[in-house]
Specification:
transcription; Beta-Lactamase; transcription regulation; 12 strands; sequence-specific DNA binding; single chain; GAF; 19 helices; DNA-binding; seven-stranded antiparallel β-sheet; 3 domains; alpha+beta; Arc Repressor Mutant, subunit A; five-stranded antiparallel β-sheet
Length: 456
């Protein structure tokens, strides 16, 4: 009982000290460096929102029907955020964080967390359905991020309400493709570990990746440019450029950097007004990303650039896999992407990148059925055009290349293993031992048994 009484006294003392800090900051007293980060929010909560910092009100949780209504207009955005939410949770889960994806009303519409601790998270309101706007909960990582439209770390006694001084919340804004706040990504913990700085850094990276996915999906039918200054003097940005090389879309960073707004973008802004660039990069027959170096107009400032061609173009419909690949984030790759030497157009054949990818696929799937249709789909061509382009590039038809690789694989296994011939046949993609023997003799001029015997 004595121990419990002491804990209550310590808790009341901590709360009292917290209330004194709020009063000092609100009345204009000097705030310590850690409180300066949230001082504007504390003043808002006191003067505008009239929140009682000592209130014991339980967390506000929306009903299931209210949650469905909140999710509905953001269904597509949630889908594109899912992979980054999962990746962020993988990073912070060991420190007992829950990851929340919230709308601009501060409602947690999606989450990842340890279900075994769900009741504890729900007690604090850091679970799906929780409402974390400043108007409801005062200064916090989600609500203050919404109010100030910037990444925010609110750690323990930086919260406004005394009820929340045991929490740590790292929130980062997610802006839509035209620069408006659409979502907030948050990592919150109820433990007293010192991982909050890492949590904020990881949350900012994940939020930016979601923004990039949304931008690339929105502008999937035009060229997309990811760019960052070589000296890291400012953040990376995203531009969308049409076939006439006019900027028709810009993310929030690009809008600020180049003074772009909806009115200017609606008419298209020449890319040449932003960057000096090589127009030949934007050839209509490109299908892979192209790394390049641009120079900002009017300066000697070099920029790393990664250019992604339109998804559809003249090819029309694309598979779900192609859509997923096209929308994947690339900003993190900017500084490491190799810049290819200028090459003449590959007339009729496959590009080196596509040839490598297809051959790699064949080499990794020799024990499977490799159809011409599957290879043609990887290349984005009809089977007829693919077969012709492959032969022009590699020198033999696709079927001949696959058979040649199967025989070479069988030869390696005959020389280096003691596996039965029947197992080698299946591993190399032949239906049975006789099938292998027939093709092996035709191509090498000898039966498989001779190759094995020579190794003895």
């Amino acid at each position: 009982m004595a121990t419990a009484a002491k804990l209550r006294i310590v808790h009341r003392t901590t709360e009292s000290r917290h209330l004194d800090q709020i009063e000092s900051v609100v009345q204009g007293g000097g705030a310590t460096s850690d409180l300066e980060e949230v001082s504007a929010s504390w003043r808002r909560c006191t003067a505008e929102l009239l929140i009682n910092p000592d209130g014991e009100t339980a967390p506000h949780i929306v009903t299931d029907s209210e949650l469905r209504v909140s999710r509905e207009p953001l269904g597509q955005a949630i889908v594109y955020a899912q992979e980054e939410v999962d990746r962020l949770y993988t990073i912070v889960r060991q420190e007992r964080y829950v990851v929340l994806l919230c709308n601009t009303d501060g409602i947690a519409i999606h989450h990842r967390g340890d279900e075994a601790q769900a009741e504890q998270f729900k007690y604090w309101g850091i679970w799906v359905g929780g409402v974390w706007s400043e108007r409801v909960e005062g200064t916090n990582g989600i609500g203050t991020c919404i109010a100030e439209e910037r990444p925010v770390l609110v750690h323990r006694d930086q919260h406004f309400r005394t009820r929340h001084i045991g929490l740590s919340c790292a929130g980062a804004p997610i802006f839509d493709p035209i620069g408006r706040l659409e979502l907030v990504l948050d990592a919150s913990s109820m433990t007293s570990n010192q991982s909050q700085t890492l949590a904020l850094a990881a949350t900012k990276v994940a939020a930016r990746a979601v923004e990039e996915r949304l931008f690339r999906e929105w502008f999937r039918n035009v060229w997309t440019i990811a760019a960052a200054p070589s000296d890291d003097s400012s953040p990376a940005l995203l531009l969308a450029v049409d076939g006439d090389l006019r900027i028709v879309g810009a993310d929030r960073v690009a809008r600020t950097t180049f003074a772009l707004d909806d009115e200017r973008l609606s008419g298209g802004v020449p890319l040449a007004m932003a960057f000096d660039h090589d127009r030949s990069i934007f050839r209509s027959n490109r299908e892979e990303d192209v790394a390049a170096r641009f120079t900002r107009v009017g300066t000697d400032e070099g920029w790393h650039v990664l250019i992604t061609p339109p998804l559809c173009g003249s090819k029309g419909w694309r598979s779900a896999t192609a859509v997923a690949i096209h929308s994947r984030p690339r900003i993190s790759m900017l500084r490491n992407a190799p810049i290819a030497e200028s090459q003449p157009p590959n007339r009729g054949g496959l590009s080196p990148v596509r040839t490598h990818r297809i051959c790699e696929y064949i080499n990794s799937n020799l024990d499977q059925n490799i159809s011409l249709e599957a290879l043609a789909e990887m290349a984005g061509l009809s089977t007829h055009h693919f077969a012709r382009a492959f032969k022009q590039t590699v020198g033999i038809p696709p079927h001949g290349y696959v058979l040649q690789r199967r025989i070479e694989h069988a030869q390696q296994m005959l020389r280096n293993t003691d596996l039965p011939m029947s197992e080698i046949a299946l591993s190399a993609g032949f239906s049975d031992q006789s099938h292998l023997a027939r093709h092996f003799r035709r191509i090498t001029g000898m039966p498989p048994s001779v190759v094995r015997w020579e190794q003895r």
